[in-house]
Write a structure and sequence with these properties.
Four copies of one chain form a homotetramer. Chain A has 301 residues and is an alpha/beta fold. Chain A has two domains: 2-113, 2,3-Dihydroxybiphenyl 1,2-Dioxygenase, domain 1 (Roll), CATH 3.10.180.10; 142-298, 2,3-Dihydroxybiphenyl 1,2-Dioxygenase, domain 1 (Roll), CATH 3.10.180.10. In chain A, 20% of the residues lie in helices and 36% in strands. In chain A, the strands form two sheets. A nine-stranded mixed beta sheet of chain A has the order 14-15-16-13-9-12-11-10-17. An eight-stranded mixed beta sheet of chain A has the order 2-3-4-1-5-8-7-6, covered by helices on one side. In chain A, helix 2 (68-81) crosses helix 3. At the C-D interface, strand 17 of C face strand 17 of D. Chains A, B, C, D: Belongs to the extradiol ring-cleavage dioxygenase family.
Chain lengths: 301, 301, 301, 301
């Protein structure tokens, strides 16, 4: 149904709290020793980001499914695919119900669940305002997607397609002939341009996770606050060719890459997949400059 | 899966062509005597708007489904609900395949189909630009939703929920007690705030159909072009409370109301439905002015 | 040199404080019994708005001049014109130096001064950020212009041109023939579209005074906050034909009309004055709707 | 009064025509052998850019003055300052009247004139639309400012202040002590943040000249068109700390740097000059990334 939570490691929880709360505007909904559970204002589930002290990089991703039956069906398909799953019980993750835990072919850990406490958005469900009167910092409304790296994008794409009904919106290939290799794939299970994406690289690594913003003006405003709050900016503001989105990439204090993302088109199950060839890839990534920086392609956590 | 086409009557086809092509920027993909088939630049299906000379108002709406099996399942549910359906054959609508035709409890005609010629977007599927280099007029990328009136919104809401798996994002009710009446319902089958909406009024009537725009700046730009092209503007630019969208309502030369719409939140099957009460309804409709004009609530086609 | 301050009457100082401070984001720089002195964040002079309890409408306008010599020259010309002036001493207005006070042919009171305490902007003059990190409400950066009514716009235009070197950017006339009457004039002494404007109506009345905003997105954001804070909105958001500006008109709690204004072109002393004829006046005022509401043209304070 | 024209050399007139006309949207108002005279749509004077085939870099800058008397006064002051002036006759520059030609201490050539044919804006002066219905490409409305390099910014700043009544809005200095050196100065003669700027570097060189755009959305749209039209982008879109403006730097086909610029504050003669210190200079130049690229600081024409 959607990306439900991103659980990452951070080197310093208090530094991270300043970043995710004061600058980005998330709210701490719960704390455990060495862990913060955070929620953005327009999300109604209990949390969408978990920060765990110790190191950097991804612990796991949670995708929320409609029903336990859906999860059971996914479990069957995943096992047929040959990936490892295990049952996950209510309470293993704060506020999250039963589900399954999958080790992807890319060594990332994925959790599927259908229940989590619903705490509601900050504007509520009765005659709501379009946004809270007193937003904090950037005021991100919700998380949007993640991009991870893997040694074998073709297998991971097949996994998400066959096991979880994701479809590719855009694909980067080494060429247009039949035996060309897949370098990256952007896949959706909603009507957005991507709910997850993966590009060729080391297994198990996180390139970035992204927050939604409403428009290009909010992207610039985020950039202004990043300058005021000494947030390290990687690239942007600019436009993506791939997804058409508008973006700034930046780093949390531990070095995990975040993105603020707006725009993009609508997808449907019959969306005609877009193909990018290597000669146009820089334009696909950063449409306006048509230049990739070294940092963007090599720094992973 | 989505709103596929809106088929409306217009009093003068050539006047309408100027409006939908020169001002809004759609492209004529086919013509039949007394009929124009139009497509917006970011749509890949054959057409999304059909204009038929003679009168005003809605002829029918087409919603595209994933598969013939989905349609068969919908057909069963519709018949159980007690609505009238008939089989529709490939060719009855130019470019559209087999499907079913339903007369809704609200007397609107709905067609469900899963096949239509795919002609592609104007930016294509290989290393595409984010928009065509030479947009015409407003340059609408796609249609978005419709709003129709009906005598019994509660029944129509139940129809769309039970027969077609739509869910309500927002509901206007006469009060918060159990036996309050439903005045309007905004329902989605995608992740948008609404794919169809209906409010209390005469059966069979069209309030408006809407085009997507990317942001508030494009909304103003559309308004500027409406002034230059002498398009009659009903309301806006403004913000909706309901859907959070940004909007201008305007009329085509025959008096059918159109909308340009941007913004809004993302919905999912577990979206907590929003409720509006009558005391806040003006704010729900036009958030900034909190005033309804007579024309907006009474002019239908 | 510029509009320096607007001094208005308000019926309730505490209600007004909420409006001008909490909603608009001005800061109270000084208080006297029954009076508030306010400053916007990007202004460096001591204050730009004075609110005085008791009634509604304009007490006086202050325009800041470069030097005492300029004021002396203006004084001569004003006396030659036949208008009444009196000397104004340092301290008559809090923080303001010597100058002159003029009763305009329109019965409005105008003060010219060249000295006022400089307190600096909120971002300062050393390596400044582009805006304060924690803006309040709309966060208006500065006042921009006023529009007043007068029985004889032609005389008032001549006064501002001959005595104070203002030039008309736009003029509304009853026709294009020689003996057509002037209905309204927009005049500038800076490079903006207008530093003052006047339209035919009763002498001594205020139509509105305006705050600058940076763009159309800030205009909508202001409108959103007006809805949240129950500020009465008169018209907008929309575009002006005259000045090309983007606007919302709204009322302070006492009924004085305010405006948030963005956009517009740049003027120079050789700017070719624009002429509007009555048949296009509604378009000139509200470009998108091309409709005037009764309230906009009749409510004055 | 304002920057009137920029006269630059280009290596290929036809390549340049495509850039300045098809991409930027200027109009060719006149041609001479090896020369194009161009005008943007919102300018009323005959031309604002002259392209001359043969090489790259600046030929000269024209600043328009109010009256011949003003020019005579400037001439006196310039001669007192010790700079070389010569009389310029009507016709030496197409459409331009009498004036003077100055070789600045920085070896740049500056022409002062008060008369040039007025051809009007493309929207005209009678009931005008806010922009032409059919803009070409980026659709720049007007030129805005230039930035040149010089060996001795302090002298050049003194020249513009003493001879031409410009004032500095922002200054970059080597430190805050008395004997610190001036690295760059942004100076205005209108109410904009800068009408000319200069930074330390070789004499006689052009860093860039800039076009005005209305807002951040137009900046991104320009960037999108630059990608479509294969225009080489140097930096941006981003925000400046200095001037607060929003920007993209790019190159014309000959390698002359252009800018599209929007935003910025308003200045007045009493504007409190802003000071930047070297430790914050990267933030001053590119506020969001706080990084300077080598190309930006070294490529001049």
């Amino acid at each position: 149904m959607r990306l439900g939570y991103v659980h990452t490691r951070v080197t310093d929880l208090e530094e991270s709290r300043k970043h995710y709360v004061d600058t980005l505007g998330m709210r701490v909904v719960a704390e455990e020793p060495g862990k913060l559970f955070l929620k953005a204002w327009d999300e109604y589930d209990h949390h969408s980001v978990v920060l765990e002290e110790g190191g950097v990089g991804l612990v796991k991703l949670g995708y929320k499914c409609r029903t336990p039956d859906d999860i059971a069906a996914f479990e069957n398909r995943i096992q047929s695919f040959g990936a490892v799953t295990e049952r996950m019980s209510k309470g293993e993750n704060l506020s999250v119900g039963d589900g399954i835990r999958v080790v992807l072919p890319s060594e990332h850990v994925l959790e599927l669940y259908s229940e989590i406490d619903v705490v509601g958005t900050e504007t509520g469900s009765l005659n709501p305002d379009p946004f809270p009167r007193h937003l904090v910092g950037v005021g991100v409304p919700r998380i949007d997607h993640t991009l991870v790296t893997c040694e074998d994008p073709a297998t991971l794409e097949r996994f998400f397609a066959e096991c979880l009904d994701f479809k590719p919106s855009e694909r980067v290939v080494t060429g247009l002939d039949r035996d060309a290799d897949l370098i990256g794939s952007w896949m959706f299970c909603t009507n957005t341009p991507h709910d997850i994406a993966f590009i060729k690289g080391p297994n198990g690594k996180l390139h970035h996770f992204a927050y939604w913003l409403n428009d290009w003006n909010e992207i610039r405003h985020a950039g202004d606050l990043f300058a005021m709050d000494d947030v390290s900016v990687d690239v942007g503001p600019t436009r993506h060719g791939i997804t058409r989105g508008e973006t700034i990439y930046f780093f949390d204090p531990s070095g995990n890459r975040n993105e603020v993302f707006s725009g993009g088109y609508i997808t449907y199950p019959d969306f005609p997949t877009i193909t990018w060839t290597p000669d146009q890839l820089a334009k696909g990534i950063f449409y306006i400059s048509r230049e990739l920086n070294e940092r963007f392609t090599t720094v992973l956590t």
